[in-house]
Amino acid sequence: MPFLKKISPRRSQVRKNISAGRFSRITRLLDTDSLISILLWCLFVVLCIPIITFELIQQVHYFDLILTTVIVVQICLAVAFYIHHYQKKIIMNHARALALVGLFILLLATTKLITLLFKHTSGATGSAVTAAIILTIAYNQRFAIGMITFYCLLGCFATGTFNKYQPTDINLYQLTDINLFLTMFAGAITCCFSLREIRTRMKLLTVSALAATVVFVTALALGLLADKSHPAYVFKNAGYHAGITFLFGLLIHSLLPLIEKIFHIATSMTLLDYSDANQPLLKKLAMEAPGTFSHSLLIGSIAEAAAEAINRNGLLCRVGAYYHDIGKISKASYFIENEIGLASRHKELSPTMSQLIIVGHVKDGIEMAKEYSLPNVLRQFIETHHGTTLIEHFYHEAKKLKTKNSKGKIIDEPSESEFRYPGPKPRTKEAAIVMLADTIEGAVRSLSEVTPTKVEAVVHTMAMRRLQDGQFDECDLSLRELSRIEASISKTLAAHYHGRIAYPKPPDMPEETQSQAEQSKQKSN
Length: 525
What we know:
Layout: H1 9-29, H2 32-52, H3 54-58, H4 62-86, H5 89-92, H6 94-118, H7 122-138, H8 141-158, H9 177-194, H10 203-226, H11 231-263, H12 268-274, H13 280-288, H14 290-309, H15 314-323, H16 351-371, H17 376-384, H18 392-406, H19 429-445, H20 452-468, H21 479-496, H22 514-524
Helix pairs in contact: 2-4, 2-6, 4-8, 6-7, 6-8, 7-8, 7-9, 7-11, 8-9, 9-10, 10-11, 13-14, 14-15, 14-19, 14-21, 15-17, 15-19, 16-18, 19-20, 20-21
């Protein structure tokens, strides 16, 4: 009989695997982060609907209210799916998710308030431009364009019941429906594409002026298409939309530090401020650990060039490299670049104690970063510039010491885990680049003779060792990008350790010894 047919073990195993896969997907959906994200989405919907349907609630139009609610919920669902596909990190980062919800609710409420008070839809255009600028600064252009599309739809609904007002000479020819959507979208898209980064204080003003111009032209063209008989009113209406666009841009310019703090970001302008050598932390590093400061400046140059080679944020790499070793300030003399001719202090310590001091500079650096209120985007370089790598020198010293004290007995070797940095591993490509630059620069500096061929060999060897050690597992660095980074670092280091022609000696100058000649050669390099 068919229902008694024997099922093969392989088919049974496949069915079990499918069931297990479904269960794991359901479990992932119901984890804590997903539940909090769903609750935040529900909060957004609950706050969004009363704002958009304010007039309908007042006028007790329940049928229109239900239809509008259904459409708004669908738009909100589309927003949720878009975030899930293109910015999954927001699901894990509840603070940023809450900031995003707050931003949209605040802007929708502002749109509704301007519409009710001034009987004009220009507030929707201004709020759309505001959302576009903030999202481009906080995330990226692609995500901002997607999110601003949904916001423009919600903004149109927030002003959609406006046609129930009696027209006056101010709002006789207003943009509504698709015309309003196109005007909002034109201004927002202009901001997204023209605002790649903010390096100067004039950038936001320039972007705001450009967006206002595009909004004016778009509103004027759409108005004249709709009604050619009253061009003066159409011109005035376009001026209102352009004016409020520029005013909202000025408002963002003044609130930029607050936006950075809410979204935990740092614009290029802020990074440039932190790159100033007169910053208290950098000044302290230069005074108390001059060797480390010089090393950090070199790493910054190497990392910036490597990041630009793979189209990443070179400025972030440079500034992050300046601060990556600030933890060495408290015990500067225990690091070789600060010894300056003195005997190594590690000769008096056991390998285990030396390892604790070396590893401790990461923790000390994080504490100093918090004390001086460094942005989170810079703290990541302090945490991850060594990842979970092995402190090889002191590990091998510990092995030698244990073998020496064993007196021929069979003993267990020291555990590698005891001589590794605690991590975490680099989570961004910029952090991985700084890790590589830091490692390679130290290895090249230890060479007795630096030539381009030797530099390339060291660069490739160290990059492969970090790759095989799994240090790039969490930053999505591809082999093609790694190859470009190697080429850039090799070029920068070869240029830094360039050769020089020896200066001619005066006739009365005494002959210098061989050791003095070597020292002068090293100094010239």
